[in-house]
Amino acid sequence: MAANKTTRRSKPRSTIERAATIVAPQSKRPTERPSDRPCKVALLGFGTVGSSVAKILCERSNAALRLTHVLNRNIARKKVDWLPSSVYWTENIDDILSSDADIVVEVLGGLQPTEDWIRRALTSGKSVVTANKQLIARCGLELIALAQQMKQQIEFGASVAGGVPVISGLQQGLAGDDLFKIRGILNGTCNYILSQIESNGIPFATALREAQKLGFAEADPTEDIDGLDARAKLAILARVGLRCNIQPESIMARSISAIDAVDFEYAKQLGCTIRQISWAELRKPEVKSAERNTGANENSKRQELLAAVQPALVELSSPLARVEGAQNLVIATGTYGGETVFGGHGAGGHPTAVAVVSDILAIAHSRQYAQSPLKSASPSVNGDAPERPEKTPTVTDDYTSKHYLRFLVKDRPGIIASLATILAECGVNIDSVLQKPGCPKSHLPFLISLEECEASLVERALRQINTLDFMVQPCLHLPIL
Amino acid sequence: MAANKTTRRSKPRSTIERAATIVAPQSKRPTERPSDRPCKVALLGFGTVGSSVAKILCERSNAALRLTHVLNRNIARKKVDWLPSSVYWTENIDDILSSDADIVVEVLGGLQPTEDWIRRALTSGKSVVTANKQLIARCGLELIALAQQMKQQIEFGASVAGGVPVISGLQQGLAGDDLFKIRGILNGTCNYILSQIESNGIPFATALREAQKLGFAEADPTEDIDGLDARAKLAILARVGLRCNIQPESIMARSISAIDAVDFEYAKQLGCTIRQISWAELRKPEVKSAERNTGANENSKRQELLAAVQPALVELSSPLARVEGAQNLVIATGTYGGETVFGGHGAGGHPTAVAVVSDILAIAHSRQYAQSPLKSASPSVNGDAPERPEKTPTVTDDYTSKHYLRFLVKDRPGIIASLATILAECGVNIDSVLQKPGCPKSHLPFLISLEECEASLVERALRQINTLDFMVQPCLHLPIL
Description:
Two copies of one chain form a homodimer. With 481 residues, chain A is an alpha/beta fold. Chain A contains 18 helices and 17 strands. In chain A, helix 6 packs parallel to helix 7 (133-149), helix 9 packs across helix 10 (204-213) and helix 17 packs across helix 18. Chain A starts with a helix and ends with a strand. At the A-B interface, helix 3, helix 8, strand 12 and helix 16 of A face helix 3, helix 8, strand 12 and helix 16 of B. Strand 12 (338-345) of chain A pairs antiparallel with strand 12 (338-345) of chain B.
C-alpha cells in the first residue's frame, strides 16, 4: 500500500476532519513524561483487523491508551463516524512518523512498503505492534534488534493463531520450561476445508469452492492450501518457543489439495482423521547414531530441527483431531511441563484485534513505569530472555513415523506384489493393506500403511513406485502422528 | 513450618556446608546494580515442587539466575548432593530476609507463617514468587499492594492449574479482550476420580481409595473433593480474568462425593459426561428484568458474578468433557475473541515448577532492565493493568441451565406423579424421565431432566421433595452445561 497524499489534498475536508487535524499533535513535547499521559496509538490499515482494533480501543474505557491516527488508502471512503473526531486520518506515512504517537500498529500486511515503514517507525522512536506473519517470519530478528537498539519494543502476538495467545504463552507462561516440540493447526482455511471434506464426503475442489463462497478461503488460496501461510507461522513459533532461527523457506510444506473424501474413510479405519499439521521438533544430536558410526562427529554436534507443514493422520483421541472449522490449536511440549495446549479463534477481525490490543497494552504498561523513554524503557518483550542462547539448527524434514500411502491404480493382478517388493527393497515394512469395496477398477483407491520408519526411505520407494504403469496418479503419502 | 535454628547449630557442619556459608552473601552490596549480576533466588520449601524448581534452575544454563538459598525444616535430612555447594541451606527465615537474595520463592504452602514471611520478604526489598493458591485467594490484593508500595513484584502463576500458563494468558495474552466468563477443570484429583468412576463403573468410595493409593488424592481429601481447592483457584481467576474481587468463601462449592457410576450412564444417555466444573460469569445488571420491574434500580446497577464449583454435566463434544485423568483445562470467553482454551498438567512437581521458574524469569527480566531497584523497577506484573477498574460484584450461585435430577427411591406407584406435581408448582418443566432397567425396587435410581430454569426454583422444589417418604437419599441435582 502506497500513501497517496494527492488524493487526500484534492478532496475538500469536513469540519470534523479539520478539527481533528488541529488537535492532532504533530510533534513530541519533550517536557511530557510518558507516564503523565496516555499512550498514543497510530493505526496503519483500517481493514477488517484495523477497524476491530479501533473498535476495541474506543469501546473499552481506556485511560492509558488513545487512538490518535489512522492511515489507510482512500480515507474518504474508509472514514467511519464512530471514531472520535480527534482521530487524525491520513494517507501519508510521514504524518504518522512525525507525530507524537508512541505506538505504531501495523495491520496492513504485505512485505513492502510495510517493512520500510516499520523500520522508520522504530527509528523515529516509536514502538511497533504488528500482525504481519510473513514479515516477522522473514526479518523478525532484524526488527527486534533494531527495536532494542532504539530502546523501543516490537510485538507480534497477532502474527500466529490470531486471538490464541500462544506467542505470549510460549515466551512468558512457559519460559521456565525447556520446550523441544511444537505441533499445531495454524491455518483455519485448511482446517475448514478438511473438516468439510470429512463431514460431507465432498471432493477437495468442491470444499474449496464452498470455503471461497463463505469467505473462509481467498480467491487465490495458494498461500493457505500449499502451507506457505502456516510455515511462516511455524517459523515464528520455532523461534519464540524453541529458540531456533529458521527461515520459512527452509520448512518443507505440502499441499492439502491431494486429500480426498476416501482418505478420511481410510483414516477412520486406522482410528484417525486428517489435519494440516505444522510441526517443529528439536532433535538431540546423539540420536543420529548413523552419523556417529561414520565418524561425522563435528556435524552431529549441531542440533537438528525437524520442521514440516503437511496434511497428516492424527489419532481421533488427540486434541488436534478435535479442532473443527476455522479454529487453531497449538501443543507445546517441554522437558519439564509435558504438553500444554492453547486453542481458540485463529483468524477473524475481532480475535486478531484482541491479540493486537494485548500487545499494545503490554507496551503501554511497560512504558508507563519507565522513567524515561530513552533511558530505561523495557526491551522488546519479544526479545530474547537473556539466559537462553539462540540456536541455528540444521533443518530437516526426514521425520520418523508410521506412514499412510494411498494409491489410485488401474486394477490388474500383481499390483500388491510389485509394491511390496519395492517397499521391502527400500527397507520399509507394511503394517496393513485396506481396500474399500465397490470402487471402479479403472480408478481403484487403496491404502497401505507402513510401520514406523524414516520418511526418506518411503520417499525413495515412492520415486520408483510412481513410475509404474498401473499408477493413475502419484501415491499420496502422509505421516501417521 | 517453624524455622529451627537449634537443629542446624547442634549438628556438625561439613566442609562444603561451611564453605557455602562463607560464600553465601549476607547483605546487600549497595554499589552493585541489579543488571550487573545474576538475579539471586532463595527457595522456601524443598518438597516436590521446591526440589523441581531447584532442578530446573540448575539444569538449565541460566546466566541470569542463581539459586543461592534453600530454607526447609530439618535440612540435614533434606540436603541433596546435586545442588552447587554455594547454595546456603537454612532453617531460619531471618537468614533469607537478611541475605542479598533478590527473589524469594515460596513453595511451602499453608497460611501461616507463610503470609508473614512473604510480607517480610517484600518489606525487605525482595520480590516474591508463590504457588500458594489459598494465600493468594485470601490476601492476594493486599500482598500486591504491599509489593507495589515496596517497588517489588509478586507473581503467582503456579497458584492455578500448575503448569498451564493461564494466569499469564489471562493477564497478558488476553489483556486486549473484555472477558466475561471463565469455566475450568481446576482440580486434577476430582477429575481423576470422576474419570475412574466413568471408565471403570466403580463406586465413588472405591475410586477415591484407588486415587489415594496412587498418590492422586491426599489422606484427607476434603479440600479437593468438596471443591475448596478449586474455589480458591476460581477466586484467583475471577480476579485476574474478570477483575472481580471476591473471597473464596463467597463461592458455592459442592462435593463430588454424591456422584456414582449410574450417573455416568444417565449422563451418557443425555450426550454428556460429568466433571467438576469451576465457573465464574459476569452478568450485566440489565438481564435481571425481575429487579427492574420491582424498581430495584440502585441494586441492579451493581454487577453480579455467578460463581460456583460443582459437579456438572458437560456435553461430550465440549473440550471440558475430554479432559482425562489429572489434566486441567480453562476456557476463557471474551466479548471480542470468543472462547480461548488453555490445557495441560495441572499439578505435579515439574509442571508446577515450570510455572514458578517462568515467574522468576519474568521478574529477573524486568529487574535486569530497571535502572535502579528502588526507582524504576517494574510494578507487579500481577498488579492491575491501569486501564481496567476493579469490580466488587455481588456473588450469586443462582445459575440458569437445564438440570439433572437423579433420585434414589423405594419404588411404589405414584412417585413420578408426586414429583411432577411439586416441580410444576415451583414453575419447573420436566424435559425427560429415564429409568434404566434391572435395578432393585428398594434402591431404584432414576433421572428427571428439567428444561432451562433458575437453580433456585429447582432447589425450592427439592426442599419439599427430599422430605417425601419414598426418598432413600436426597436428590442429586447437577446443572447441565
